[in-house]
Structures are given as C-alpha cells and as structure tokens.
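Reminder to self: tokens first, then the designed residues, so the page reads top to bottom the way the pipeline ran.
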C-alpha cells in the first residue's frame, strides 16, 4: 500500500521568495533521494531534480516549472517514497534510477550507448540511415557487385558491428567535439572475472568515466549489449552505485555485492577519444563506402581472392596469469570487435592478414 511506503520528513517549509535550492539539495543528500512528494493546504505536488535543476511538478500547471530564487511556494511538508526489501528487514530509500531505454528492433548497442551517456542522444534508425548512405556510395562507385556491408549490420533491424557504429559516431554532430569511439578493454571474460575493481580500473584511461558497455553472447550464440553505469548517490558524500542496464529489462539492476558482479561475463568496451581509421587498411570497406574519402575508379582493382572488410591489426593480448583476464592493447581490436554484439547470432569472420585484408574462408 502506497501510504505504508511514504515516510514523512519532518520539514515544514515556510518559504516563499528565498532560494529553495540549498534546502532541497540538503534533503536530497541526507535522504539519498532526488524527488519528493509534497503536501500543502489540501493539495499535493512534487519536486524533482532533473539534469541538475530542481523542478516543480504540479498537475495544475501545464508542465514542469524550474524552481529558482524568486519562486513562490506555499509552506509544505515533504515525503519520500521508500520500499521494503525482499527480506522485509528495513526500509531503504530509493534514489533516482539511472536513465534506461526499452529495446527497439535489434538496436541494443545504440540503447547501451544512450544509457551509458544518460540520455537519448541518438537512435538505431539514425545509424541505419547512415549505413544506407554508405550503401548508396558503393552503388555510386559501382562497387556493389564486390562489396556490401552485410557483415556489419542487419538490414532494417540493427545488429550493429562495433566498427560500423564507430564510423557513425565519427560523423555524428553530437560527437564532433567529444570524439568518442568504442574500444575493447577486456575480452572474453568468464563468470567471476568481471569485478567492480576491474571495471573501475578500465575507466582510469577512458575518456568517459561513468560507464562501460558489456557485450555478451548467450548459450544460443545470440549477441547482446548492456551497460554498466556508475551513478553518484550524493555528491557531498562522494558515494556511488553501479547498475546493470539492459534494454530487454524493465528496471535497472543494482550491483551491490560480489555475487552480483560475478554473474557477469562478456567483453568490456570503454569510451575512448580517437579516430575510426586507427589501424584500418586503406582498402577497407569503410574507406570504400565513405563518400568523404576520394575514390579513383580507374585505378581501383578488386581482388576477388580477398574480402575487403574493415580489419585491424591482430590484437596484442596480454593474459594475467593469476586471473586469466585478457587485455587489449590500446590501438588494437580483437576478432570479437569484428563481430556483432547486438542481439544477433554471431558469425565466424575470416582470419586477418598483415595487409589489413582478409583471406576468403575455405568453402
């Protein structure tokens, strides 16, 4: 029952024209909660902190109203919503949950990217449109008989390969100053190998410090991408909580115990600053399908014995003898980086050669 989960905060605010921010921030920090239900003179409203700004949520108003130094609010009593844990031992204040997205088509890599950032910055359809333009470039250059991008995505569905998504990021206006690309920090980690310390260690050299993307493969060889997100509980306390954010789930999962972490497995992607072209052979599919890169049809020769996919140098993998964890070198991608993490059956990829092309698999 809702009334059993409302805890009254003994604060009767007789404030009209003073700045409410210090009081609201103090309440949020003290009670680990960034939203409060308020009662004043037989009416109710809410206050909520959103993107660093306190908002007044009142059903009598057309929309959320920013609370500032000149805001006039009637005296009110504040309540916080608590929930009882599964063992019914104690009430636990529930902080504002991290941003989540619900799965659309096979866009889990894009959903994971947005959930890592904490807002909807792009969509799977935008990535599909970007790839469609690349396909049209191949047609314009009369390369469609030799090359297609089917290894990098599923038409109309998603299942985006890391490299094709990085190419999208390289052209994405939101990302021009940030210059984010995704790179593997650890690959093929088994259960019990992923720990909070391992993830936080990988973030030390990352350009974005609050999240990583975890690519996994289930027993049916179905690829999927999820987010591991660190969210600050209260700035003044310098405490934070880690969450598992999965677009196939309706709620975030808190990672509070070593058992929670030990259930995770897969490969860890971090946000780095760099170029999608680092380590790529000039004859890669991405080069040939990029309309901004000059192409000379008269000098181009297609070698039918090679598949000009976007390959990278063979990864320099270091294995820790104690825990068996493999670590990618900063400028290398593993063969897994070539596979699609996003909700699709994985497919074998050809072996790499030193010139950046790939030999045709034996039939």
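Designed residues (363 positions):
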């Amino acid at each position: 029952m809702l009334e059993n989960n409302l805890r009254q905060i003994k604060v009767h605010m007789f404030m009209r024209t003073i700045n409410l921010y210090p009081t609201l921030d103090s309440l949020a920090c003290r009670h680990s909660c960034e939203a409060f239900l308020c009662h004043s003179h037989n009416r109710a409203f809410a206050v909520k902190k959103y993107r660093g700004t306190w908002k007044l949520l009142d059903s009598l108003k057309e929309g959320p109203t920013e609370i500032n130094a000149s805001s006039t609010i009637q005296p009110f009593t504040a309540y916080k919503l608590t929930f009882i844990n599964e063992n019914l031992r104690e009430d636990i204040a529930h902080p504002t949950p991290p941003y989540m997205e619900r799965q659309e088509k096979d866009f889990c890599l894009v959903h994971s990217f947005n959930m890592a950032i904490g807002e909807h910055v792009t969509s799977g359809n935008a990535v599909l449109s970007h790839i469609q333009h690349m396909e049209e470039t191949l047609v314009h250059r009369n390369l469609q008989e030799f090359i297609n991008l089917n290894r990098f995505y599923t038409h109309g569905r998603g299942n985006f390969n890391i490299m094709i998504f990085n190419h999208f990021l390289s052209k994405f206006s939101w990302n021009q100053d940030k210059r984010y690309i995704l790179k593997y920090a650890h690959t093929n980690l088994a259960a019990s190998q992923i720990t909070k310390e391992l993830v936080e260690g990988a973030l030390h050299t990352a350009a974005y410090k609050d999240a990583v993307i975890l690519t996994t493969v289930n027993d049916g060889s179905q690829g999927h991408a999820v987010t591991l997100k660190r969210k600050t509980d209260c700035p003044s306390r310098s405490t934070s909580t880690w969450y598992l954010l999965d677009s196939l789930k309706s709620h975030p999962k808190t990672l509070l115990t070593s058992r929670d972490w030990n259930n995770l497995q897969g490969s860890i992607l971090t946000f780095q600053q760099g170029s999608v072209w680092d380590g790529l052979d000039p004859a890669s599919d991405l080069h040939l399908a990029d309309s901004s890169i000059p192409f000379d049809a008269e000098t181009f020769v297609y070698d039918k014995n090679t598949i000009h996919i976007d390959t990278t140098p063979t990864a320099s993998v270091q294995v820790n003898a104690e825990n068996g964890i493999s670590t990618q070198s900063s400028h290398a991608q593993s063969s897994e980086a070539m596979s699609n993490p996003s909700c699709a059956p994985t497919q074998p990829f050809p072996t790499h050669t030193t010139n950046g092309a790939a030999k045709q698999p034996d039939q």
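The helical segments are 21-31, 108-117, 124-140, 162-171, 196-203, 258-262, 285-288.
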